[in-house]
Task: inverse folding
């Protein structure tokens, strides 16, 4: 069965610090997709990144970076030089190819507080 | 704005009343999803459509819930005889199935339901 675990329920850091959000997943499929979404207080889920299981290259987008490690089934997200606007709930999610429906399963989320 | 739009954004209703939410997906997106999110939890899958066909329903979708997508464009989610346990945010999402799986799902801002 597919499962996504975000062990950190809530994190608080001071502005400009770096912070890493952990994500561990379980799947029996050999082809799968991993996602991160951001949910600000307004409620909308904002897509951040998609990574397929065959691409283990780390990705960097501005202050955001993602570390995909198949060996440990982890897909961690790092924000460098955090800003107050980064405060939100962040969800890691998984979609399996075998389902052929793009349905994604979410973790419970990590609430990130960036303190000024 | 060409994103997923949902209406109403907020709904307060008395227990036992019926409510209906509408979702307009991103234009030309052929897949449409409904998710439910309660406080402190990640979104949970309810149902999805490929064009006008409803292809999967979660066990979370009780007999009081019905979803439609009559012309393969907008969708409605109706909850009959609402209960306090139905209080949650109902998220709609859509995707364009360019490939079998792994297509990115884009979410709307959600419809908050409070049953009093």
Result:
């Amino acid at each position: 069965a597919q499962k996504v675990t975000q062990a950190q329920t809530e994190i608080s850091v001071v502005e400009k610090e770096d912070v890493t959000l952990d994500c561990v997943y379980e799947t029996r499929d050999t082809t799968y997709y991993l996602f991160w979404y951001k949910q600000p207080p307004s409620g909308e889920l904002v897509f951040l990144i998609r990574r397929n299981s065959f691409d283990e290259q780390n990705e960097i987008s501005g202050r955001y970076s993602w570390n995909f490690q198949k060996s440990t089934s982890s897909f961690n997200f790092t924000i460098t030089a955090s800003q107050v606007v980064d405060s939100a709930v962040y969800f890691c999610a998984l979609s399996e190819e075998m389902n052929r429906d793009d349905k994604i399963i979410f973790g419970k989320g990590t609430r990130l507080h960036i303190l000024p | 704005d060409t994103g997923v739009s949902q209406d109403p954004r907020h709904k307060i209703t008395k227990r036992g009343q019926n409510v209906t939410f509408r979702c307009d997906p991103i234009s030309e997106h052929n897949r449409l999803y409904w998710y439910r999110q309660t406080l402190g939890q990640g979104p949970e899958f309810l149902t999805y459509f490929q064009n006008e066909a409803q292809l999967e329903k979660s066990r979370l979708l009780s007999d009081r819930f019905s979803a439609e997508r009559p012309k393969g464009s907008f969708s409605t989610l109706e909850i009959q005889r609402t209960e306090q346990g139905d209080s949650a945010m109902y998220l709609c999402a859509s995707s364009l199935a360019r490939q079998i799986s792994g297509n990115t799902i884009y979410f709307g801002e959600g419809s908050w339901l409070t049953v009093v």
Remarks:
- The mean pLDDT of chain B is 93.
- The longest strand of chain B covers residues 88-95.
- Chain B touches chain A at residues 31, 33, 40-45, 48, 50, 55-56, 89, 91, 93, 95, 97, 100-110, 112 (CB under 8 Å).
- The radius of gyration of chain B is 14 Å.
